[in-house]
Design a protein that fits this description.
It is built from 17 helices and 36 strands. It has 702 residues and is of the alpha+beta class. It starts with a helix and ends in a 20-residue tail after the last helix. The longest helix is centred in the first third of the chain and has 33 residues, at 41-73. α1 (2-21) runs antiparallel to α2 and α10 runs antiparallel to α11 (437-445). Among the domains are: 76-144 and 192-230 and 386-500 and 657-702, Alkaline Phosphatase, subunit A; 503-654, no CATH class. β3 (149-151) and β4 (158-160) form a beta hairpin. The protein is globular. It has an eight-stranded mixed sheet, with helices on both faces. A five-stranded antiparallel sheet has the order 13-14-15-16-17, with no helix packed on it. 28% of the residues lie in helices and 25% in strands.
Amino acid sequence: MFLVLKTRLLFVLLTISLVLSSPGTAQAYIGPGAGFAVMGSFLVMFTAILSALMALLTWPIRYIIRTIRNRKALSKSRVKKVVILGLDGLDPSIAETFMAEGKLPNLSKLNEQGCFKKLGTSIPSISPVAWSTFQTGTNPGKHNIFDFMTRSPKSYSPILSSVEIKGSPRTINLGKYRLPVGRAVIKLLRKSRPFWKILGEHGIFSNIIRVPITFPPEKFNGVQLSAMCVPDLRGTQGMFSFYTTKIDETSEHTGGERFQVVQDGDTIHSELIGPPNPFKENGQVLKIPFEITITDMSSASMRLNGKLYRLDKDVYTDWIRLKFKAAPGINVHGICRFLLLGVSPEFELYVTPINIDPAKPVMPISHPRVYATYLAKLNGTYATLGLAEDTWALNEKVLKDDDFLTQCIQIDKEREKMFLDALDKVRQGLCVCVFDGTDRVQHAFWRHIDKKHPVYDKDKLEGRDAIEEVYQRMDQLVGEAMVRCNDRDSVLMVISDHGFASFRYGVDLNRWLEEQGYLKVMDGKRPEKHLAAVDWSQTSAFAIGLAGIYLNIKGREAQGIVSPGEEADKLRREIAEKLEGLTDTERGETAVVNVYNAMDVYKGPYKENAPDLIVGYNRGYRASWENAIGLVTEAVFHTNRRAWSGDHCIDPALVPGVLFCNRHIEDDNPRLIDLGPTVLDMFGIGLPGYMDGKALAVAEPD
């Protein structure tokens, strides 16, 4: 107990010192096209000092209250500490194969010590849905997350499903500048409550690191670093930059921007693109000029923000801190890495998306806000972008396989430092950390293990062992966690939100709906994205995102034509019956194995926000890239030739996750939805009535 309290005291004092030492040039909130709400530097420093003084003065009282509360909190608990290590996308079948081959000794040991079971995922089996189900213990009808994207009922265009970001509603003009008045709105759209918030209400501390769908962070008794849907500094979900002297022969790029530069002797001049300047009337984009001087065939030097950096071919720089000057005395901070890809015959330079600087975050990415800074001071600068591994740069063939793998490994190592530090400091309570590398590597390198994949190349060796190697790296991490949980009072779980399968062919549901007479495309508009080609006056159903079909219902959609109630119910059943069992006649395979009616599978106040139908694809199939962004093509089936070759957006029964535990679990069919209730039960806390999951029967240690 004394060690725990001593650790927390050190954390409080470190937090205060970080607040006092933080530069006070600006505090800002930024979102996609949102702008900033700015607080003057004097007020920031004054508030920080006042808060720190109040914390020091009231600390003895809070210390006593917390001590009493913690003793009471653990009085009914069967454990002192629960650790949940999330390995996104870890597949049970692949894990079983590697364990049988002796390649995952720590997971094998964990199985022998306790158990290894398949873990039922969510409907649909998509990461934001699954992790929301995990943290709330509820079905999507109660937590309101059904996909990565949803549609705007007003415009039908795709929008993020988990977060809403709006700029300051008013501005004051001051000469050539304008001053935003009031804070921007950053709103988490996931509903219900994470189980660690319930733990906190009972006096139990939690450390939550990079669990998806925790942005913006919520207040609770603990610390948290947000993950999926944290934007980059430009307000996107990850916009990389590519600078080259090569003439662009491609009309469109996805996920990044290409800049053609001119080489003058050994010198190249260009600019880093930042967010729009909220202080300028025309919202001009903030930029930082940089100069590249080519040294030889494998290196160059770069001058940026008044500093000189060395660039070596095929070697990432460390995180470089950026300072965009928005107005006198107001700077916006970000971080990025540079990768020199080529010098001759063409100059090529890749720049990661500009992440929010964790040392000086322009929006809340952690709870408390200073926790992000604490981690940066403790372990060094780290990626903050929700989807930090740049799969789009790989898809666009800007990055090579090895470049992408290096990026994944770097990000996992950053998180490993945070996780192990948390395990050392949290002596009682809950510790949860999610690693994304397993998911990203399987997405990108499944083409190397699936001989039936359209882009499988038997002669290509680069990346051939990437999946096996990421499983082995995570197995080593499991071993580190086992050492730190090697006592009778600690429970260690290793989980994944879903498994994995091949993604060989995409299905354009909108084209299928068009062929069946449920959707109408306007003449000459077919190539337009975001459902802009659809004639809503003659469309009763449409698809967008990775999982669902929406009905064009009157009163719900802006131009709805389907009456709610009996007509809508009949249409749902009709489409489901036709679509289930959809066959890819060219290959003689079933593409769709199940179609779920949202009104039947979801329970709760938010099920009306769900797609009306959720499509369960067969292995090898998924919603096409075009379907995801609302582009209606002229074919139902599309060959997937991108590096993103593995996926899990298929029928949930085909991609269960994993559950390893250092204690035996009696239940034969555990589900992701059961883990939150199980943790509450182990800490002796009764389950809230709204939770849909049940507490699993976790045995006492031998």
